[in-house]
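step 3/5: co-fold with fructose -6-phosphate
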Amino acid sequence: MCGIVGYIGKKQAKPILINGLSRLEYRGYDSAGIATIEKSGLKVVKNKGRVNDLSNTKGINSLEGTLGIGHTRWATHGKPSSTNSHPHSDNSKNFAVVHNGIIENYSDLKEFLQAHDYTFLSETDTEVIPNLIHFYFNSSKQKDNLRFLDAVTNACKMLKGSYAIEVLSSMYPDNMIVVRKDSPLVIGKGIDENYISSDIPAILSFTKDFYLLNDNEFAFISRTSIDFYDSNLQKINKACQNITWNATAAEKDGYPDFMLKEINEQPKAIRETIGSRISKDSKTIIPDLNLNKKYLNTINKIYIVACGTAMHAGFATKPIFENLCEISVEVEAASEFRYRNPIINEKTLCLFITQSGETADTIAALKLAKSKGAKTIAISNVIGSSITREADYTVYTHAGPEIAVASTKAYTSQIVLLAIIAIYFSEILEKNSTKTIELKNDILLLPSKIEEVLKNTEQIKNFAQKIYKEKDVFFIGRGIDYSVAQEGSLKLKEISYIHSEAYPSGELKHGPIALIENDVTVISVLTNRLLVEKSVSNILEVVTRGAKTFIVTNQELNQEFDEVIKIPKTNTFISPVLSIIPLQILAYYISKEKGLDVDKPRNLAKSVTVE
Ligand code: F6R
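step 4/5: write C-alpha cells
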C-alpha cells in the first residue's frame, strides 16, 4: 500500500513526480504529496485526495527543484488529511521523508524522541523517521556524505516493521538516500538523472535499466551516481538489470480503463505464460524449477497459499495437482496459514501465489513454511519482487503489468501456470500420461478460445444494465465451478460495491436458499459435464422461488433460462480460464453503469504490503 517516487537530475522534478504518482495511484489514493529542494531549502506540498487534486493545492504552482520525492497514500495510521499526508519532516525542517510500509514500534520511538524534546504534528507512524534521522545526524561522528548516510542507517536500525523510504535533506541539496525492508523499491538509472519508484512500470517510460534493492540495502544517489551500502556503511556492488517490458504495456492503449484493457489482454497473457514451457510432443520444461523424481516422491502434501484472487487461482487448480500427481493439496489464505502453526515438514511442498510478489501475509507465510523445512515455490508476475528473494524457486506468470486493482489477467495466467507445474510434476513422477497429454493440448488451445469468449460482450453488457441496481447477488457452482463462483463474486463486490456471496450449489438447501425471493439475481457457473443435471436442478430450485438467472456454461441446456452465456468447451481442469471471463466483464459493466472508478475501487489498493 502507498506508492513512492523520486527524481534527481537536470529537469524540473515536479511534473516527473506527479506523472509517477499517478501511475502508482493504484497502490493507494487517499492523499498525495511531494517535496523538492529549492534554493531556499526543503519545500513540501501535500493534501488529502487524489494525485490530481495536488494541482489545486497551495504552493504547487511555484514548487521548483531538480530533485524531489513523492507519495500517494493508503492510510494505515491516522485518517486521510493534509497533516497525515507524506512527505513528513523533522522538527528542524531539514529532512523530509516518504515511506511505504508500517513502523510497528512507532509508539516506543515517539516516546523516545519526545523524551529528547521532539514534538509531533501527525498521527502517523512515519513522522518518527525524519526525527530519528535528525537525532542521529546530530550525534554522528562521520563527516560529509557519510554523516547523512550514518544518520539514515542508524535511524533504520531502530525501526521494526516494513519500509521503503526516500530521504531528502536541505543540507545535501544534490543527493537523496533510499532504503527498503519488506516493502518494494526500485531505482531506475538514466543518463545524468536517476529515478526511484515502488514499481517498475511507473518509470518504465524514462528508463529500462533498473537496480533492485534487497532488504536493508541503502542507496546514496546523486544525478550521476548511485552508491550502495549495507547498514554498516560498507559499500556493496549491485548489477543493473535491463527490463524488457514495453513501456506501452503500462498505458491504457486506447481503452477507457486498465481493467477492460487487462481483460482483453488475456489471450496474450496466457500465450506468454505458456511460452515454450509446454509443447504437444515433448516433456514440459520449467527451467526455474529443478525438482527431481526422488524429491517429488517424498512429498505427501502440497499447500497452496495466497490471498484474494490469487487464492482463488489456488482453489481452481487444487484438483489438477490432486488428479495428475496424486498428492493431497490444501489451499489456504496466507493470513490464516501464517498464524495457525500448520503441520509442515520436509515432506511438504508449499506454493505461494502472488501477482505483485509484495503481499505481506503471503511473504510471511512463505517464511514460516521455509523455517519448518518445506521447499517453497513462488508464483509471481513481478520480476525481482520481494517474494522472489525469499522463495527457493520462483516461476513467473508473464501477464505483463497489471495496473487495475481488480485482478483479471493475473488470475487466468496463474491458473495456466499452476496447471503447467502440475503437468511438470506429473511427468517427472511418471503418472497418467494420457491425462497430461490431453491437458497440454487443451492449454495450447486456450488463447484462441479466450478470444472467442471476448467477442461476446454485448449480451453481458445488457444484463449488467438490468441488474446494476441490485443490493445482493448470489453466485453458485459445483466443484471447480464453485471456485469460479468465488472469484466472480469477489470481482463484483470489489468494483461495484454490490454485496455478493458464492455458495457451492449443493449447499443452497442447507441455509442460503432462505434468502432467495422474487427477482433476486443468481449467477451460476456450469461447465462440468458430469454434474450438469445436479447443477441444473439447483438452478431450477432458485428459479422456482423467483430468482433471475445468469448462467455461464459450455453445456447444452434443455431448459429456458433468463440469460445463458455460452463459452467454448475445454478440459474441465482449465475451464475456469474461460468461465471467469464473462463474470469479469459483468462486474466491469455493472461498475461502469454505476459510474464508479473501475480501476481504483474505494478502500482498496493493488498490493497489500501491510497485514
Ligand atoms: C482482487 C485482488 C486481490 C489480490 C490479493 C493478492 O481482484 O486483486 O484479492 O488478488 O490482494 O494480491 P497478490 O496477488 O499481489 O498477492
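step 5/5: annotate
Residues 458-593 form a domain with the Rossmann fold fold (CATH 3.40.50.10490).
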